[in-house]
């Protein structure tokens, strides 16, 4: 037997100042967005900004009732909470944000007028990412689901009503989006959806979503990109840039 | 080389059985030995539409269970020499329809010299429908010009590309054809129905044919005579065109525009 260390990307749900029943509601919404995708998805609850006195047993029950698996908690976990969590076999995890690795220990603050060339990274400053873009050629039909794990997704073709395209990164659709597109599925709020013709059942970025009937009317059937600004969805035409 | 063709749709009542009977009959009329298999266990009606219900003794499940051999279960058509049907059981439970069992039956039919094996699928995406499409070389996806039917056809087309023998063995994909049935140009114009263009936009499947809504279909099924045998009927002609296209002969689409009869032709019946 060998012990190895591997990296995983996990879905993190923030328990801000919400109560556990808010959490239940949030999980319910998430699940309804893409029922098959989220079934039995491992999940970490971030208790960083919550001052709640958490009932860990109830937390686990809520997460499991909604079809997720509680992998652990993260955030500002007090000693007492650690103790309580361990009583319910809930791990305490310490996450690191996914970022480009910079070898210089303390990045210099960027000066306003610095020459561009100086700012550009030299080769050795960055480690080469192994993450590729997932490219799917052809229609995605009702009932089908395409998931790009930890990378961007490109669809060359239409995404039919009842179909789901999901990526941890950005989604590019060279065709008509009639089904659901969920970018930043693991919480990346910088993720963007691009599509040639927008007629979706649902678009979501990092869990924030809009259904077809709440979409800005003038964007229907247009080529556009969808991104997040302060938790609000921003639609912008690809033809007006 | 024998060809297995599934007639499927997802949705029920769209015209799968009507189409299986018509297209099976059309293929058999070319002299090719053809069998139509009814996969709709518990709800058999292919034999009614083909007018051979009184001659059914054994069925598909009997053959799968080894209770009858293929020759005993095949019912020979009275009108077309090279046409046979393999009926469904009306009583047995659907779990009897196993992949191994269906594989054996199809192998036996091929060994017996059948050139076309038409599988009339039940509705839905359950076991019966999956077994009907599993061994298909080609598929005729049957759709009515309405949103829910088109959506189901999209779904079943996805299944053909992921849940069939050909997909699992990474062979050349199942060749999919679209057959639009119960098309009414008048209702399309009134926007009560999707147009051919709308459907093509959503599905993007090669069009095999468009069968108009027609009273003759009901009369034909009451008579137990596949509508393609009635070449006076628009629906019969449209099915014949579809069979010709399936065999590689190009045919123009007919019966897809409103016939605007002039005053004179109305009076003189022109
Ligand atoms: N072109 C058509 N015009 C009018 N009625 C039709 C047409 N095609 C099918 N039907 C009718 O629709 C009903 C369902 O047809 P059927 O072939 O049994 O469908 P399925 O096998 O898909 O359930 C039947 O009553 C049939 O007579
Ligand atoms: Mg039927």
Question: Please, could you describe this protein's structure?
Answer:
The complex is a heterodimer of chains A (241) and B (270). The model of chain A is unreliable at 97-128 (pLDDT under 50). In chain A, strands 5-7-9-11-14-15 form a 6-stranded mixed sheet, with no helix packed on it. In chain A, strands 6-8-10-12-13 form a 5-stranded mixed sheet, with no helix packed on it. Chain A has helices at 20-33, 35-38, 56-65, 79-87, 116-119, and strands at residues 11-14, 42-46, 69-74, 91-93, 134-137, 145-148, 153-156, 164-167, 171-177, 180-183, 193-198, 202-205, 208-211, 224-229, 232-237. Chain A is an alpha/beta fold. Chain A is built from 5 helices and 15 strands. Chain A has 2 domains: 11-92, Alpha-Beta Plaits (2-Layer Sandwich); 131-237, Pectate Lyase C-like. With 270 residues, chain B is an alpha/beta fold. Chain B contains 13 helices and 8 strands. In chain B, strands 3-4-2-5-1-6-7-8 form an 8-stranded mixed sheet, sandwiched between helices. The longest helix of chain B is centred in the N-terminal third of the chain and has 14 residues, at 16-29. The complex binds adenosine-5'-diphosphate (ADP) and magnesium ion. Magnesium ion binds next to helix 1 of chain B.
Note the main attributes of this structure:
heterodimer, A: 241 residues, alpha/beta, Alpha-Beta Plaits, Pectate Lyase C-like, 2 domains, six-stranded mixed beta sheet, five-stranded mixed beta sheet, 5 helices, 15 strands, elongated, B: 270 residues, eight-stranded mixed beta sheet, 13 helices, binds adenosine-5'-diphosphate, binds magnesium ion
């Amino acid at each position: 037997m060998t012990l190895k260390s591997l990296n995983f990307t996990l879905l993190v749900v923030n328990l801000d100042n919400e109560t556990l029943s808010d959490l239940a509601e949030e999980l319910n919404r998430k699940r309804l967005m893409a029922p098959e995708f989220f079934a039995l998805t491992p999940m970490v609850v971030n208790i960083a900004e919550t001052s709640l006195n958490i009932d860990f047993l109830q937390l686990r029950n809520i997460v499991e009732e909604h079809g997720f698996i509680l992998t652990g908690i993260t955030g500002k976990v007090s000693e007492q909470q650690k103790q309580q969590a361990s009583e319910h076999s809930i791990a305490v995890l310490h996450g690191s944000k996914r970022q480009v690795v910079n070898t210089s220990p303390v990045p210099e603050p960027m000066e306003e007028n610095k020459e561009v060339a100086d700012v550009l990274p030299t080769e050795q400053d960055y480690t080469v990412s192994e993450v590729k873009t997932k490219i799917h050629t052809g229609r995605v039909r009702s009932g089908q689901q395409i998931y790009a794990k930890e990378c961007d997704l490109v669809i060359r073709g239409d995404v039919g009503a009842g179909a789901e395209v999901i990526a941890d990164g950005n989604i590019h659709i060279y065709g008509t989006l009639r089904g659901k597109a969920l970018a930043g599925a693991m919480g990346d709020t910088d993720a963007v959806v691009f599509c040639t013709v927008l007629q979706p059942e649902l678009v979501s970025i990092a869990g924030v979503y809009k259904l077809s009937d709440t979409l800005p009317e003038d964007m229907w059937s247009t080529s556009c990109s969808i991104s997040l600004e302060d938790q609000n969805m921003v639609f912008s035409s690809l033809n007006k840039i | 080389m024998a060809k297995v063709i599934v007639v499927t749709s997802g949705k029920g009542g769209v015209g799968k059985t009507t189409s299986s009977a018509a297209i099976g009959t059309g293929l058999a009329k070319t002299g090719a030995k053809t069998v139509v298999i009814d996969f709709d266990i518990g709800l058999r009606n292919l034999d009614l539409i083909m007018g051979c219900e009184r001659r059914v003794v054994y069925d598909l499940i009997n053959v799968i269970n080894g209770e009858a051999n293929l020759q005993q279960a095949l019912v020979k058509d009275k009108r077309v020499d090279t046409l046979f049907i393999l009926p469904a059981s009306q009583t047995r439970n659907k779990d009897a329809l196993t992949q191994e069992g269906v594989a054996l039956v199809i192998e036996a039919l091929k060994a017996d010299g059948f050139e076309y094996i038409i599988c009339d699928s039940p509705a839905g995406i359950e076991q019966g429908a999956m077994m009907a499409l599993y061994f298909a070389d080609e598929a005729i996806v049957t759709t009515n010009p309405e949103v829910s039917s088109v959506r189901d056809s999209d779904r079943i087309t996805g299944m053909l590309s992921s849940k069939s023998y050909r997909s699992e063995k990474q062979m050349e994909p199942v060749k999919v054809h679209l057959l639009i049935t119960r098309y009414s140009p008048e209702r399309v114009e009134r926007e009560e129905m999707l147009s051919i263009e709308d459907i093509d936009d959503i599905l993007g499947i090669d069009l095999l044919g468009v069968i108009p809504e027609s009273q003759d279909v009901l009369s034909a099924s009451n008579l137990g005579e596949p509508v393609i045998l009635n070449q006076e009927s628009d629906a019969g002609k449209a099915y014949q065109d579809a069979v010709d296209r399936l065999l590689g002969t190009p045919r123009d689409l007919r019966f897809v525009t409103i016939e605007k009869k002039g005053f004179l032709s109305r009076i003189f019946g022109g």
